Amino acid sequence: MLAHDDVAQWRARVFTSLMSVVLVLALIAAVPSAALAVYRDIPAVALMDTAALAWILAIWRMDRLAYRTRVLNFLAMLYGVGIGSMLAAGAIGLFYLLAAPALAAVLLGTRQAIAALALSAATLMVLGLTGQTDIPVGHYAHDSLPSVLILTLNFTCVGGLITLSCGTLLKGLAGSLKDVRTFAGSLEEGQSLLRAMNGELRLTSAALAGLNEMVLIVKVDDRPGAIQPIIFANRAFERRSGYRADEIVGSSMRMLDGPDTDPAVVARIVEAMGRREPVSAELVNYSKSGEPYWVEIDMVPFAGAGGPITHLVVVGRDITERRRSADAIEQLAFFDVLTGLPNRRLLMERLHALVEGAHAGRGLGAVLYIDLDNFKSVNDARGHATGDALLKHVAAQLVDAVREGDTVARLGGDEFVILAAHLGSDDAAATAAALALAQQVGKALRRPATIDNQVYHSSGSIGVALPLRPGQTMHDLLREADTAMYHAKAAGRNGVALFETTMLAAAENVLTLERDLANALERNELALHLQLQVDPAGAPVGAEVLLRWRRADGVLVPPDAFIPVAEETGLIVPLGAWVLHQACLAWRELERAGHALPLSINVSPRQFRQPDFVAMVRAVVHETGVPAQQLIFEVTEGLLVDDIDDTVSRMQELAQLGIRFSIDDFGTGY
């Protein structure tokens, strides 16, 4: 391209083209001229034309000669033809003499052109003064000095004008070529930079397309109501959303919203987009098929160097599994696995808020503590699967029975707690509302449940407590509701009890009794009494072993006071083992005294159902040497009703040892 050539190269190209043209024109002009000269018998002209044509042909053929040599030969040829023409034909030679400096300006330079012009002018003057030319000038003789001077000056002026014009044009062309070369260099550098940038852009685009993270590029549109269209979506986005890039380009990001998309999060993102600020968020998007998935996005504004923000780059990560794991962890941390109800941890958080709200004057609430009646019997008789199904049924009934906003929680086992908020602004109204709710809950608990085609009936003992006292903590409130529940259970079960402060004293007595009973064995405060059993004639036929407890201070604790506590706390198991061992030792004493009698020993259902009960009895009998036939276990009819298969199996094992059985308190409901 011309933009890459310098002036010398340009001159060489011009000269080569010029020689081809000159050769053609020389043939056109010289051949007829030579023929005419021969015809008119002008051999000098014919010889000059032939020599000039041969010279031109030689210059044209000798293209390996140096450029300057060829040009000088060409100019010399013109100069020679000019002189010859002046001598032979007169004024026609002026054109050749004038062409030499003009072409020198183009092919060599201004200085060489001026030298050629000076040579031509000097030649013209010499030829004029010597009378070799016949060019008249006005009234002067053609060989007079004035005529020659006028001709030479005019020739010089015209030649100088043409020569300088060509030189000036050539200089301007050289400057233009330099500018073009500079521009071409800049353009080439820019093209190289552009190619490099395009390469980087393609690399970046390929990297974006290959990322595992979803990438969207949104064009900023400041027009009112504009949708801020998506202009790019990578393959990761296509894979997760199900949309092809051409389906989403031009659309708004809002097309990914759905029913579970949080409007507050969307509003925050839209607000950040409007302010052209970065934003991070987690929200639910919807795929093309309608599948919801959680995505974590980071949106960053993009602007050119120093320019306004033109685009928003959105990078998204699929966090569906992470959210599911977090939800599962939260479910395990705050909710009961079996029923799905809030567990103790979440209950205590909400109970704290209820108590704080009451102390702050935001209305009174209540705590309902529920313990299912006789649930253990169902669990033992029908197995844990049935028990779990019954617990789920109870949980559903409790949720249906309370108001929206109330909390139903499972503490564990068969214990549930209801937190009822905003029952009233004064004590009386709140208490009445709490008791009414408790009655409603009790009614719901009595609804039968059908499990494996079997109908089960349940009920519950409900304790109610309200945060009525200043300084009352959530632990106080829960303990008071628990205390009230035990009063409801003691009153015959399937009832409601409102906590009263007098219950605290009773609860403290129970706790004291439990603690002292645990230490009674170590302190030797327990003793066995034998109550004779006689026949109709009054003859002794046996004795019933009775457990009595006299404190170290001499106070006798009645059995109906400490036996229920032992049953409730599980102390009945070690107490029963101690009673059996002591009864066997007592029989040995009676035997040595000559009064051996069968002994009847009370066995509680809880003790009887211990996995190692039969083994324990066998070990005691073997250790003490008491004939097993001398032992009669008194059990309640309730033991025979619950889990009859296991009960009969154990009774048969004990009977094989020789143990006999009798029903205690038959018909009383125990």
From TrEMBL:
Supply the alphabetized keyword list.
Answer: Membrane, Transmembrane, Transmembrane helix
Enumerate the spans annotated as PAC domain: 277-331
Q: Which InterPro entries match?
A: Biofilm_reg_signaling, EAL_dom, EAL_sf, GGDEF_dom, MASE11, Nucleotide_cyclase, PAC, PAS
Q: What sequence ranges are listed for the domain EAL?
A: 510-670
- Indicate the transmembrane segments per the record: 12-36, 42-60, 72-97, 103-127, 148-170
Enumerate the spans annotated as GGDEF domain.
Answer: 363-501
Name of this protein: Diguanylate cyclase
Q: From which organism does this entry originate?
A: Massilia aurea
Q: What is the lineage of its organism?
A: Bacteria, Pseudomonadati, Pseudomonadota, Betaproteobacteria, Burkholderiales
